[in-house]
């Protein structure tokens, strides 16, 4: 922990964010080589490092024909144009490698029509406009970020006949209402008026042409005409200074109070501009988008530390068939010297290729990853995470090269490519799924490592809670005082646990970063670690310069984390978690912590859905029984582990118990549970569209069936989703029973 150096993290970040590194760009490839160089360093490198390349479909704006948003007067002439680029306030926003703001995967086109304001672009927002008597056909919708996903704004708009969509960031949502240049970067951490949030508008994750298949040359590719998940209409993001010009001149009914923002005027709904404004009343907005799709090569980089024990064959070290792997185990035999680091295997035998022979690697992996690509300089997103990745691997690599340490289980460090376009690199990696599902203990994600410098924030599945709590109790929090990270964390985010009392609260994992394919597709226990804001001091939905050209090294150095103590705290937390997962004799995954989640889901179903289900002769009895079975088996497994920890257990007994802990998460997968979704198989953490916070499939099905008659297909789906959950819970309980108990 002491060797994790804040100054080195700072210098890593300076180098990583020195130039824009959009996925597949020359600078992105330079960073691939930088990672390989660091991980092959003779003094601080790892056992091996390799890059694997995928050919994936990406989306870029045309350099020859930039995207433009114009106001067209009654005679057809352009009377006003929105800014095409962000203001060059520090000399870093105007370079040739700064990509123009755009909506990735939005189709090209030049729609033109009267402007309407549609709040956040949710389905209910467009219905509200129709309720107000506004004809939406052929209009251009101005929407603001938040509420629903980027791509959903365009999908929802197209359903109502809207021709094009504009998206902006309202100062009320990200700047605490501040909007003047002297109140924003470079004078504070707030977003300048010209700032534009770029992003992917693709609905799914992974390469669009090869769903469920790795994007390698031999894989089948979907015909471009049959690709789903792209926005159906031209879409373009703009800055809030341009949004102010549009929105503050709109005609029509006053927007609802919850739709108002901080642009300094009363927001109206449209359509069209008011007669006493800056533009003629019958002026229209033209959105010209010239995005193009391109097949590009994008690389993942893997750095590997081989584990010392837990080899592939069940005979393992205590029988000494391979005594050199005995160092570090807890058998009664003397530790023998470790083998010297071996060269990286040839490419066709790589971990990433899915064809590595079992005997080359101890067969339990702890994965730690972050993406490498950014929209522009990406100092916060993602380079704050990569800076920590490099420092953690340097410290562990140095111990490795000195011969003073080797983990029980293998550690795999990963730098994913093309995350910003839809988690592409990590998803392609997980599509070689058999090996990962069978052998991965957990996945640790550190993407944006520091949103702000107030407190730790962790999202994860319940079994990882205990290992994070244990780690954070032993690490000092940055800042004055002598609080641990745990004690500081509990001041900002906490919940009352029926088992533990007041504890820090873990968030659940959605699909916002590279943990998504690991938890939703492969069922691998996962977590995401970062430092974040004091919510009582800001209403920002995310750090203000997110996905803009103002996310630079100086922004982090001056405003987010001067001194880099929060970066160091995240590095120490993540490093401690890695060591606990890779070195502990018994895996520190506490499956009984799932019982609280299941019990809360059950209680929500009983309280909020029970009467409705009863009306349609659907009983929650089997679900109650299944939850109780899980609780009993989880408690019994915990007791068996506690008993074994007091003695000198046979390593094979420990191996069996560790496999039960590792594989529990997989039992919640059902690849047929959500046919309308892609990659979502986890019946506890799939997207929930229903309002009841319970098992997502049950919540969603009840929401759709609520106003239909008994016996309808919608109510049959409710019964199916209930059966899916019950079966998953029964399978989970069975997995936790003693292995010999069939």
TrEMBL record:
**Stretch forming the signal peptide:** none
One GO cellular-component annotation of the UniProt record comes to: apical plasma membrane
- Provide the Peptidase M28 domain boundaries: 363-558
Co-factor(s): Zn(2+)
Localization annotation: Apical cell membrane
* Domain of life from the UniProt record: Eukaryota
Q: Identify the main location.
A: membrane
Q: Which CDD domains match?
A: M28_PSMA_like (cd08022), PA_GCPII_like (cd02121)
Task: Please tell me whether the keyword Membrane is annotated for this protein.
Answer: no
> Which residues are in the Transferrin receptor-like dimerisation domain?
618-737
Q: How does it sit in the membrane?
A: Single-pass type II membrane protein
**What keywords tag this UniProt record?**
Aminopeptidase, Calcium, Disulfide bond, Glycoprotein, Hydrolase, Metal-binding, Metalloprotease, Protease, Signal-anchor, Transmembrane, Zinc
Biological process according to GO: proteolysis
Extract the GO molecular function terms from the UniProt entry.
aminopeptidase activity; metal ion binding; metallopeptidase activity
The family database entries (SUPFAM superfamilies) matched by this protein are listed as:
PA domain, Transferrin receptor-like dimerisation domain, Zn-dependent exopeptidases
Q: What does this protein do?
A: Aminopeptidase with broad substrate specificity. Has lower activity with substrates that have Asp or Glu in the P2' position, or Pro in the P3' position. Lacks activity with substrates that have both Pro in the P3' position and Asp or Glu in the P2' position. Lacks carboxypeptidase activity. Lacks dipeptidyl-peptidase IV type activity.
Similarity field:
Belongs to the peptidase M28 family. M28B subfamily.
This chain's protein is named Aminopeptidase NAALADL1
């Amino acid at each position: 922990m002491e060797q994790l150096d804040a100054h080195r993290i700072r210098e890593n970040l300076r180098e990583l964010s020195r130039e824009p590194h959009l996925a597949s760009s020359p600078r992105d490839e330079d960073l691939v080589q930088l990672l390989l160089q660091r991980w092959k360093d003779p003094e601080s490198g790892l056992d091996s490092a390799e890059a694997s390349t995928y050919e994936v479909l990406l989306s870029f704006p045309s350099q020859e024909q930039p995207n433009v948003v114009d106001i067209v007067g009654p005679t057809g002439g352009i009377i006003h144009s929105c800014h095409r680029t962000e203001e060059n306030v520090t000399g870093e926003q105007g370079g040739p490698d700064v990509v123009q703001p755009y909506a990735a995967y939005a189709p090209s086109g030049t729609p033109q029509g009267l402007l309407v304001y549609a709040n956040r672009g949710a389905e209910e927002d467009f219905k509200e406009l129709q309720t107000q008597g506004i004809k939406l056909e052929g209009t251009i919708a101005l929407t603001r970020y938040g509420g629903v996903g980027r791509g959903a704004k365009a999908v929802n708009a197209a359903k109502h006949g809207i021709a094009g969509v504009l998206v902006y960031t309202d100062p009320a949502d990200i700047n605490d209402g501040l909007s003047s240049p002297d109140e924003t970067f470079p004078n504070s951490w707030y977003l300048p008026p010209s700032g534009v949030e770029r992003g992917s508008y693709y609905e799914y994750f992974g390469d669009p042409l090869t769903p469920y298949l790795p994007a390698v040359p031999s894989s089948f590719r979907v015909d471009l005409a049959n690709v789903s998940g792209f926005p159906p209409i031209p879409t373009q993001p703009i800055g809030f200074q341009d949004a102010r010009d549009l929105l503050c001149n709109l005609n029509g009914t006053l927007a609802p109070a919850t739709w108002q923002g901080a642009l300094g005027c009363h927001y109206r709904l449209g359509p069209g501009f008011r007669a006493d404004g800056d533009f003629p009343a019958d002026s229209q907005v033209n959105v010209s988008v010239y995005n193009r799709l391109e097949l590009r090569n994008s690389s993942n980089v893997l750095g590997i530390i081989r584990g010392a024990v837990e080899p592939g064959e069940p005979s393992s070290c205590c029988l000494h068939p391979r005594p050199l792997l005995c160092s570090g185990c807890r058998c009664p035999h003397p530790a023998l010297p470790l083998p010297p680091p071996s060269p990286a295997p040839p490419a066709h035998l790589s971990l990433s290729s899915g064809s590595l022979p079992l005997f080359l690697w101890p067969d339990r992996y702890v994965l730690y990853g972050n993406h490498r690509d950014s929209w522009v300089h990406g100092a916060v997103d993602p380079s704050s995470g990569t800076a920590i990745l490099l420092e953690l691997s340097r410290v562990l690599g140095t111990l490795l090269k000195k011969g003073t340490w080797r983990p029980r289980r293998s550690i795999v460090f990963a730098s994913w490519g093309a995350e910003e376009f839809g988690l592409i690199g990590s998803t392609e990696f997980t599509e070689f799924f058999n090996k990962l599902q069978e052998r991965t203990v957990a996945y640790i994600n550190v993407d944006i490592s520091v949103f702000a410098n107030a407190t730790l924030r962790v999202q994860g599945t319940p079994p990882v809670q205990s290992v994070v709590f244990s780690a954070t109790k032993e690490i000092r929090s940055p800042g004055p005082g002598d609080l641990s990270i745990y004690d500081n964390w509990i001041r900002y985010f906490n919940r009352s646990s029926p088992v533990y009392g007041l504890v820090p609260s873990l968030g659940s994992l959605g699909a916002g970063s590279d943990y998504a394919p690991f938890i939703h597709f492969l069922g691998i226990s996962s977590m995401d670690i970062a430092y974040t804001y004091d919510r009582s001091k800001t209403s920002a939905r995310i750090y203000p310069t997110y996905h803009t050209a103002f996310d630079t090294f100086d922004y982090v150095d001056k405003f987010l984390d001067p001194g880099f103590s929060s970066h160091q705290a995240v590095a120490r937390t993540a490093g401690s978690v890695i060591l606990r997962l890779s070195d502990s004799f018994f895996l520190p995954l506490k499956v009984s912590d799932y019982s609280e989640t299941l019990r809360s889901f059950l209680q929500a179903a009983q309280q909020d859905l029970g009467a409705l289900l009863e009306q349609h002769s659907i009983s929650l009895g089997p679900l109650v029984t299944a939850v109780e079975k899980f609780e009993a088996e989880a408690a019994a497994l915990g007791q068996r582990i506690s008993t074994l920890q007091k003695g000198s257990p046979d390593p094979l007994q420990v191996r069996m118990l560790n496999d039960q802990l590792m594989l529990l998460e997989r039992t919640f997968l059902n690849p047929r549970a959500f046919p309308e979704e892609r990659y979502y198989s986890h019946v506890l953490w799939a997207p929930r569209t229903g309002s009841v916070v319970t098992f997502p499939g049950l919540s969603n099905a009840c929401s759709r069936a609520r106003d239909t008659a008994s016996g309808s297909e919608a109510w049959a789906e409710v019964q199916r989703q209930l059966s899916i959950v019950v079966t998953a819970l029964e399978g989970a309980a069975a997995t936790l029973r003693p292995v010999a108990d069939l």
